[in-house]
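Hi U.,

Before I forget, here's the chain from the pilot set. I'm dumping it here mostly so it's searchable later in email.
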Amino acid sequence: MGIEITWLGHSTFLIGTPEGRKILVDPWLEGNPSCPEAFHEVEVDAILLTHGHGDHIGGVFAAADRCAGSIVGIYDLTTWLGSKGIDGGKLVGMNKGGTVQLKELGVGVTMVDARHSSTFVEEDGTVVPLGEAAGFVVRFSDDRRLYIAGDTSLFGDMRLIGELYAPEVAILPIGDWFTMDPRQAAYACKFTGVATAIPCHYGTFPILSGTPEQLREELARLGVEVVVVAPAIGEAVEV
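Structure:
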């Protein structure tokens, strides 16, 4: 069995491991205008959080109750989540450069850099800083590696992510305005050396104007051979 990836709209993904376990990335479920209702109460074995913006953790409080295992994020973010009532026994705070082993899933998770802000706006308008944005390299039991870039601009050290961790597949934002556009994402593919790219953070709102076809065009312009897999929302693809 391979790695199954289901796009739930925006930057929310459900990842199936070779053993059939489920990892939820950046849970923005019920409030996400793109997320199918059938996934609003999905039960999972782990959650990965790239940063604290509401369009990435807006569903984490409800999803935490349906998560059987670890909730992984940068230390500042997980500490805040614990102060808000999420079970501290599930929270795994880490920082960039570190690797944690989710032994119950047979998965290793390395936190890598991302270039973006990370805050949460409370109901009273208070802006809470939640550390830095991050990405992840997930290493599965069959030694396959998935790079989850999170919200980020292009940065040169993506080359080091490629050299150190050799991911085969990358989930990359392409929407522009708040993250990389398709041209930058094409360079991210070149820097990391991935064979497959799955675009995200586009199309949710008109302002997020990048498209998968533009990514394919930019890759062709660079002469980089990468397969762009752009699943429909709610569609599972095996990579």
